[in-house]
Design a protein that fits this description.
Elements (H helix, E strand, L loop, with lengths): L1 H33 L8 H32 L11 H49 L4 H15 L4 E7 L4 E6 L9 E8 L8 E9 L8 E10 L2 E11 L7 H66 L7 H33 L7 E4 H12 L7 E5 L5 E4 L1 H17 L6 E9 L2 E8 L33 H11 L3 E6 L5 E8 L11
Parallel strand pairs: 3-5, 8-10
Antiparallel strand pairs: 1-2, 1-6, 3-4, 5-6, 7-9, 10-11, 11-13, 12-13
Length: 516
Amino acid sequence: MGDRRWIRAGRLLGAGALAVLLPSVVVVVLESAVGVPDASAVYLIGVTVMAIAFGVPGGVLCAVASVLVYDFLFTEPLYTLTVSDPGEWLNLVLLLFVGVTVGELAGLQRRRAESAAASERESRALFEVTRALATRTTTIDALPSMARALARDARMDAVWFALEGPDAERPVAQSGEDAAAGPIRAYAALHRGRDGSPDTWAQVRAPLPPGGPATGVRHYRVRLEDAGQPIGSIWATRPRDGDPPDPPTMTLLRVAADLIAQAVAHDRLAEEAGRAEVARQSDAVKSALLQSVSHDLRTPLASIRAFAGTLMDPEIALESAEARASAAAIDREAQRLNRLVGNLLDLSRIDGGVLRAADEALDLEDVVEAAVGHVQVGSGDRRIETSIPEGAAVQADPALIEQVLVNLLDNAQRHTPADATIRVSAVVGNGRVVVTVEDSGPGVPRGALARIFDKFYRAGGATRGSGAGTGIGLAVVLGFVEAMGGRASARQSELGGLAVDVDLRAAELPAVPAMA
């Protein structure tokens, strides 16, 4: 700091000497060669230049030096500081007065210009900081651009941000490479003024972990606080022999620290709220799963035990037809139980992100026939109609597409009366195949269509009751269809009930080579 002061003093004296010497040469020319009786006003040019370059001290110094030089060189008696003519005294006093006044005015203008420039830098930096925070995904992502803006507009060599960790602060963003490298042994901490008092820098000497160049620079620290609790710091460096940050820069760093601290605290609250919401939703899913599955597991198990008990009871004599009917009922309930467990396993694969779909060209008519065959036993008096264009083929996973249709058919059977009609149809066009499973049942309310594929959601209906299902069959349908690159949607059927459209890519079946 001492060396820099001597350099500034040397620059001031050198510029002042030049600001007096050059006007003196001009005065000699004007008074000797041109014949101007009093050219002392020329010195005001040097006074103005010095005031603009070095402020009020430079202007006043030049004014005083100009009066002394003019008195020594151009006022009788020459080469002395004595003035014999009272008129000359008046000229010198007026020169000094005008020179000091001009210096004051020029210095004031310079201070205003510097203040305006500082305000512009502060406003620009704060604008970039607020813009980065307003458009951020997370505050951590926005910190690098803010560090560069503060380094530029606060005139710092480097700026970096450090946030509180388990043991100490850790750097999270910096204005340039290696900005936060090396140990810090001493730094100046910003002490915030209270009750209108100005901010000040307090020197602190203690080893701190965030890092910074070890030699040749001076470190500055502005704490990030939320409700009085430290959450991190803004660190900055300047050359060791440079001036400390001025009040506008201190204000810029303080306001930036407040904005960043609020943003970091907001992100942490949002993260905590997100974790709480995830936990709440997880608990809700677990409760819904328990409520849905416990009933739907017990129903087929109870039926199986009842029919099995009838078969095993030695006191009940069953005809062969009755025994086969009981065995068929046991098989039907076992299949229902198997589908329920399969849906639960499929849902866990979808939620876990481990579902992988094959991509094969499949004959749609064969797929539909296989799905209908799986549910035909439990259809009762319901009519299952199919209308598939000849040669229609889809690009899909054979196991997934069949399970999609089985779930849709099972859903239709579950929620329609015994004499209802269920239709499976397909439309081919524009490289897509739309497969529709619809029924003539009571359908679902129009407002429930948007949520019908949600997990554990069960829309109200006239036939709802013990057989309403777990609410995961259609969720599995949506997951499987999306895994195959398709789309699923629900609407009201032309038959009066629910229609589910499955939109998949069309395919071309490979030609079968003719027998030789």
